[in-house]
Amino acid sequence: MSSVSALNSLLSSSSSNPAGIDLSQILQAALGASSEGIDVTAAVNAAVTAAEAPEQTWESQQTTLQNQNTALTQLQTGTTNLDDDMQSLNSITGPLSAVTVSSSNSSIVSASAASGTSSGTHVVQVANLATTASWSSDTLASATTPLAAGSFTITANGTTTTISTGTGTSTLSNVVSTINSDNLGVTARVVTDATGSRLAIVSNTSGSASNFSVSAPTGGSLSFTQAVNGANASLTVDGLSISSASNTVTGAIPGVTLNLLNAAPGTNVSLTIAPNTSQVSTAINQFVSDYNTLITAVNAQFSDTSGSGEGVLANDPVVRNLQSDLQNALDYLYTPASGSTTVSSLASLGISVGNDGTLTVDSSTLNSALQNNFSDVQTFFQGTAFNGFANSLDQQLTSFTSPADGAFTVDLQNISSENSGLQTDINNFQNNYITPLKTQLNAEYSQAEILLQQLPEEMQQINTELGENNKSSS
To answer: Could you report the per-residue pLDDT of 4-38, keeping only the tens digit for each?
Structure first.
């Protein structure tokens, strides 16, 4: 078959134009209007792009889903932050249970208290501090001075241990390693100063029970002197005598840990335990801040002040429900909560709402409520049995944030499933239609290009034959 016939067959074949391809480039080349042949790559790409129109629609839907996923995840984070605030304010170990302890003389005794410790004032006197038993050897020239052969004993916790010197334990450093590896209840170290080096042995605990003894040397070069005798701390708390093996005293006041710093017989130190109002103020302000962040993000989905239209979640019922629940929470602005007295609403704490739905805190009103009516503040948030405002809002928010079946979890799963379905359609469309089409078009356009390249030679042959026939006719 000639190139002309083959090209005519190719152009007339219905299979050569399955995507509605513009064949003008081939026709122009065939008629001599183009001297450059066919740009196969450009022609195939144009045809494939036209064929991919349905895929572009699916990809646009995927972009919308991805934007919804991002926006929903941000709202989920904001809701979780607010819910964490509510759970903290409703916790038995949260800021509303935190206390501070102030000391009238913190150089003698300071203290800390566990959450929920009862408020009150206690008087402490420190007669003497607890001490830790210790012994020291005589001084040698250095830590590496050779020791003569011999031994000494350490008696601690009812057990006597012999420490040998000389071969294998020939220096103070060797002796330290030996003692510390034996778990005797004491710790040894080398002390070096301007006078030389000596061995120090100190009990691992304080108090009278920490006492231990070190024997006189037997044929050795070390002798020992007791530096400190272990003794219990002696103090009174609210007039009651207390003996403690440690200068950190627990149990004298329920929930309170005393830190004894100096002995001061006859000196009264007052410890005042009170609610940590600073921590509570911070927690309430954090709640207001997180509420404002969330309600602003939610409202933006429905009324965009920038003029660019509603957000991608404007038609999402989950977001609508969240907006409604957040607005309903503000019923506590002025509606008294059950069980509350002086502090009966958010407004009693100095919290007010603006036209945009965000909250504002009046610091002076809040601080006054915390200082003068702390128990009522606690009751407002926690109720009489952890059933106050904090619990109410927590229950509402948990229905959105629950990892198992929360509204956000279900919504995000649906978006993910829909996106996966679209991706499957795209993959199938590419594999079953676009890829074969591209292969077919490349083959047909390449064949057409070859035929076009052969046309000039065939045209020349035709012209030659026509010229000879004309001469014969003449």
So the answer is: 555 555 555 544 455 444 455 544 544 444 445 66
Task: Look up residue 456 and give its two tokens.
Answer: 């000039």
Question: Cβ(145)–Cβ(197) under 8 Å?
Answer: yes
CA dihedral 60, 61, 64, 69 (to 10 degrees): -130
Task: Tell me the Ramachandran region of residue 20: left when phi exceeds 0, alpha when psi lies from -120 to 50, beta otherwise.
Answer: left
Take residue 293 and report the two structure tokens written for it. Answer: 């962040």
Pick the CATH number of 134-228 from 2.30.30, 1.25.40, 2.120.10, 2.60.40: 2.60.40
Q: Give residue for tokens 């407004």.
A: 347
**Are 339 and 384 spatial neighbours (Cβ–Cβ below 8 Å)?**
yes
Residues 184-214: tens digit of each pLDDT = 999 999 999 999 999 999 999 999 999 999 9
Q: Domain spans of the chain?
A: 3-55+419-473, 64-94+278-410, 99-129+233-275, 134-228
How far apart CA 442 and CA 288 sit, in angstroms, is 64
Strand stretches in 261-301, DSSP E: 269-275
When mean pLDDT is compared across 1-5, 28-32, 443-447, the lowest value belongs to 28-32
b/e 344-354 (16+ beta carbons within 10 angstroms → b): bbbbbbbbbbe
Rounded-to-integer distance, Cα 399 and Cα 393, Å: 10
Read off the tokens for 70: 């991002």
- Model's pTM, two decimal places? 0.73
Would you give the DSSP letter of residue 432?
I
Q: What angle do CA 393, 395, 399 make, to 5 degrees?
A: 115
Whole-number CA gyration radius for the chain? 45
Q: DSSP letter string over 193-240?
A: ETTEEEEEEEESS-SGGG--EEPPPBSSS--EEEEE--B-EEEEETTE
**Separation in Å, CA 3 to CA 23, 160, 454, 467:** 17, 113, 6, 21
Q: How far apart are CA 361 and CA 369, in angstroms?
A: 12
Q: Look at residues 152, 215, 164, 207 and name the one whose alpha carbon lies nearest to residue 185.
A: 207
Residue 59 exposure: Cα atoms within 13 Å on the Cβ side: 9
- Among 163, 208, 157, 159, CA closest to 181: 163
